[in-house]
Phosphoribosylglycinamide formyltransferase (Acetonema longum DSM 6540), 209 residues
Amino acid sequence: MPDRKVLGILASGRGSNLQSIMDAILADRLQAKIGVVISDKPEANALRRVIGMDIPAVCIERRKFASKQDFEQALAAELKLHRVDLVVLAGFMRLLGSEFLSRFAGRVMNIHPSLLPSFPGLEAQQQAIDYGVRVSGCTVHFVDQGVDSGPIILQEAVPVLPEDTAGILAERILAVEHVLYPRAIQLFCQGQLKLAGRRVLLEERGSHL
């Protein structure tokens, strides 16, 4: 797949979004290649998901570095080693600094379980329930230096039902995430996403043929 964009996946946990990306690639709904999966936690299930998949899996632990800057330099070096075109955060539970983001400007993507700018940060599902909204959802966005504040690529709504707990709502949102995230990555890989200030413009595919 020499013409396919190379993805670098950063994950801290179970890796369900990583799995949805791998599934989309296998089904040819996403024309990309995973160049490397990196976790900051050696016990992360995300690393186990790629065993036997011919995908490099690397653990880079924050505690082994004297500073956040050194840690992020190691992340960047590993991504550069694998010639990554797009950095995909899939449950990566660390905020990335300005130096890292400048190295991959416009090439770091994240998904968040709310309709941003509502309910950024941790426990977004509980935030939605506590606020009493009738609709929540998920948002794919480019990453900037804020907390879930980068330019929005795609969003999809999910109903919040009266009997919902945070866990039930999280699972309903996650099912939508598994469709929306590969779709947004595919748009990037096709060259259809253009940043214009805070707006992400969707360009017609034909203009890139």
